[in-house]
Amino acid sequence: MKKLFLPLCILLLMSGCKKSELEAVNSPAAKTVSEYKVAEDAYQVAPPKEMTEKLLPEVNKSPQSQIPSKKIDTITKKVIKNGNMRIQVGDIKKAQNQVGDIIKKNDAYIQNEQFQNTDTDDNLDLVIRVPHKNFDVLVNSFSDGVGSVLAKNISSDDVTEEYTDISIKLANKKIYLEKYRDMLKNASTTKDMIEIQETIRQLEDEIDVAEGRLRFIDDRVNYSTLNLSLYKEKVRSSSTSKVGFGSRFADSVTEGWNSFISFLLGIISFWPYLLIIPLIIFLWRKWKAGRTKNN
């Protein structure tokens, strides 16, 4: 009997422990703790999408106070094309008229014009601005029929990355500017007002610089630049020149006379030194006379 009683007690004790564990698991407190752990594991804080979310004050991070970011338009590819051409022509005036006709046909214009006439050649330098789509046609037109192309250099500069970077930073600066203007309205002390106003001034200056840079890039992209130089060499040799003997004789006489005048003017320029010669002679004679008297 004693042998059967001991196993029965152990069995009843194990059944009571399992029942208490089951009740503990199903209790409201256990359910609350389990739900809290699940919620804690599922909750994750998303990182800020914009740099502005990190830097703005905590009071401005509520959904009601958030200013939506300005949408940046899709930026197309930005390529700046420039070129340099040097063309040898037989007649500067005729070539200039041909260039003018080509410029008008391609809706271009002359930004700068400079002419030089030297003893050896004539040079007409033009800075031409042409719409981007007509640049290649303009260059090909100058290559055909105007003269002999001595040099040509065409370059393309892709500034899409720079333009995009400036545009994004500009949009962010405008958001900051609006935030600081709102902060200025709520500033409570004079010190805060002065600091906020200084920050606003700096942001406005940076925005002006960025907008100016974007306008400059747009201008260079929309209108390409071509530096065109028309060159006519003056040949004065007797075998190739059409200038006769009389003209060359007159030129020689003129050059000789100019050389003589230059020599004469050079001597005259030494007139202060000529005044020293009589003084030297006077001192030498006086010294010689005194030496003779002593003897």
From TrEMBL:
<keyword id="KW-0175">Coiled coil</keyword>
<feature type="domain" description="DUF4349">
    <location>
        <begin position="78"/>
        <end position="284"/>
    </location>
</feature>
<keyword id="KW-1133">Transmembrane helix</keyword>
<feature type="coiled-coil region">
    <location>
        <begin position="177"/>
        <end position="220"/>
    </location>
</feature>
<protein>
    <recommendedName>
        <fullName>DUF4349 domain-containing protein</fullName>
    </recommendedName>
</protein>
<feature type="transmembrane region" description="Helical">
    <location>
        <begin position="260"/>
        <end position="284"/>
    </location>
</feature>
<dbReference type="Pfam" id="PF14257">
    <property type="entry name" value="DUF4349"/>
</dbReference>
<keyword id="KW-0472">Membrane</keyword>
<dbReference type="InterPro" id="IPR025645">
    <property type="entry name" value="DUF4349"/>
</dbReference>
<keyword id="KW-0812">Transmembrane</keyword>
<keyword id="KW-0732">Signal</keyword>
<feature type="signal peptide">
    <location>
        <begin position="1"/>
        <end position="19"/>
    </location>
</feature>
